[in-house]
Amino acid sequence: MSPPATPTDDPGLALHHVGVRFGGLVALDDVSLRVPPGRVVGVIGPNGAGKTTLFNVVCGFVRPSGGSLTLDGRPFRPRPHRLTRLGIGRTLQGVGLFPGLTVLENVTAGASHAARAGFAAALFGLPGSDRDERRLRAEALALLAELGIDRHAAAAPATLPYPVRKRVALARALIARPRLLLLDEPAGGLGADDVAELADLVRALPQRADGCAVLLVEHHMDLVMSVCHELVVLDFGRVIAAGPPERIRDDPRVAEAYLGADVPADAGGTP
Ligand SMILES: Nc1ncnc2c1ncn2[C@@H]1O[C@H](COP(=O)(O)OP(=O)(O)OP(=O)(O)O)[C@@H](O)[C@H]1O
Fold first, then answer.
1. 51, 184, 221: residue to mutate for ligand 1 pocket, most atoms within 8 A of CB
2. Whose CA is nearest to atom 2 of ligand 1?
3. CB 143 within 8 Å of CB 174
4. 132 and 205: one domain?
5. Which residue numbers delimit the ABC transporter domain (predicted)?
6. What digits encode the pLDDT tens for the residues 120-131?
7. Are residues 74 and 110 in the same domain?
């Protein structure tokens, strides 16, 4: 028998035999997957397959009824308010920006606890706080520029087109320099050009200076096929296939799962 995993054996996020029940309904059943550093892992599956439930387990919104999670080989019990501190960022379906804040303020609001402490000190005029505030604003502006939306820094989110707001939400997640980014349907509501640009952004995430692994839950087949190193396919809460996109595309079990279910209208293609 192999010895138990140590932190160095198992870098990144891992789910081990996770199950979730809602009353009598089994939403996830014996699901295991890994998101190693620097990799983009996609979770796909037909409607009701369990994708959102899996995302919610990793964010701490849903408690598994069985199995476990590890982060760098250590037991990991996700809590939504502790994710940033653990180096985990997320964007949710929709955008969820603060309507009373400008774009720039929305992005700085996503900074880590330590960076925000400096920002809060600025509010009370404490020593060194000007420098912290300037640094945080500069960082936020640089991120907005990287995402091609810095000209909107002073705008209120409600005045901006949906695809721009989605990028603001991404910038807000990135300013905390996550080592793992959880993306829930980032292509939802985007047109073909915006999805192509999103694909470039996601592909570039692991190459950022601080590097970043990505767990991507998504309906849009063209996006997942073009950005993911690895795909995990769920159907009725179980993993029916896992591997590189080329293999998943040709897997008859995956085609069958999709053919037997409604393929969403916004899907960019079928596997
Ligand atoms: N809070 C809940 N209470 C009861 N059942 C739930 C709850 N959340 C999800 N479910 C059920 O669990 C199963 C998995 O749902 P989930 O939303 O995770 O699937 P999905 O793959 O994200 O679907 P979609 O692609 O339609 O968003 C479905 O049968 C769903 O009805």
1. 51
2. 22
3. yes
4. no
5. 13-261
6. 555 555 555 667
7. no
Inside any domain, residue 169: no
Report how far ligand 1's centroid is from the alpha carbon of 131 (Å): 46
3-state helix, strand, coil in the chain (%, to 5): 40, 20, 40
Q: How far is the CA of 46 from the centre of ligand 1 (A)?
A: 11
Q: H helices within the chain, ranges in order?
A: 51-59, 103-108, 113-123, 129-146, 162-174, 192-204, 221-227, 245-249, 252-259
pLDDT digits (tens, 9 = 90+) for 192-206: 988 998 899 899 888
Q: Whose CA is nearest to atom 12 of ligand 1?
A: 27
| Whether residues 268 and 186 fall in one domain | yes
Write out the residue range of the structural domain in which residue 101 sits: 97-161
Say if residue 66 is in the same domain as residue 191.
yes
Question: Which domain CATH number covers 232?
Answer: 3.40.50.300
User: Same domain for 253 and 227?
Assistant: yes
Report if residue 140 sits inside a domain.
Answer: yes
User: Are residues 82 and 194 part of one domain?
Assistant: yes
* Protein residue with its CA nearest to atom 31 in ligand 1: 48
Read off the tokens for 165: 């707001």
Q: Which residues line ligand 1 (CB under 6 A)?
A: 22, 25, 27, 45, 47-53
Atom 11 (ligand 1): residue with closest C-alpha?
A: 27
Least confident of 30-39, 114-123, 192-201: 114-123
